[in-house]
Specification:
With 174 residues, this protein is mostly beta strands. It has strands spanning 4-9, 16-20, 29-34, 42-48, 51-56, 63-67, 72-75, 83-85, 93-98, 105-109, 113-117, 125-126, 134-140, 147-152, 159-163, 171-172. It contains no helices and 16 strands.
């Protein structure tokens, strides 16, 4: 048995998705999907040695998965096929999130800031949040208009930041 590194559930269907993290470069891990609330699991054909985060849209059809220090992967077919997303650069990804439709893609990294895409990962925008902070988590509501991100940093700069404007304006919430 292997331990899951991250899990996500679709908001409007029975789909769950999980990634298992591999510790060594030859210890591959996979993305797993469950169509029945976690009672049974199917391994997809996408593998990596360092999965760190996963998110599903409301239906479970669109899935986003991140590797640490490597690419992001996106499936719009319940995990049957995957495409590599190409944000500007490879970062040490820590967290990913999708809105209900899978169009808004949100990512966090400890060495590259918080990134947004409004078209399922085709074009990317770096948010105005400080890229020097260690971004550890992101979340979004169903529409994608409300976003939260959490970071650690020096001199009290870390904390929880919130946006109610699709990531245009941010306030430090905690």
């Amino acid at each position: 048995r292997t331990a899951a590194a991250a899990m996500s559930a679709s908001a409007a269907s029975s789909y769950f998705v999980a990634v298992q993290g591999g510790a060594a470069s030859n210890n591959y891990s996979y993305v797993y999907l469950s169509p029945d609330y976690g009672r049974s699991w199917q391994r997809t054909n996408e593998y990596s040695s360092a999965w760190v985060s996963v998110s599903a849209d409301a239906t479970g059809k669109d899935v986003l998965a991140a590797t640490s220090g490597g690419p992001l992967y996106y499936s719009s077919s319940y995990g049957a096929t995957w495409r590599q997303l190409s944000p500007p650069g490879f970062f040490t990804w820590t967290s990913v999130a999708l809105n209900a439709t899978g169009e808004l893609v949100l990512t966090a990294s400890i060495d590259g800031g918080v990134w947004l895409s409004f078209d399922s990962g085709a074009l990317w925008n770096l948010t105005t949040l400080s890229a020097s902070l260690l971004w550890q988590g992101v979340a979004t509501d169903r529409s994608g208009s409300r976003i939260a991100a959490i970071a650690s940093g020096n001199a009290g700069q870390g904390g929880i930041y919130a946006s109610a404007s699709y990531g245009v304006r941010w306030t430090q919430a905690a």
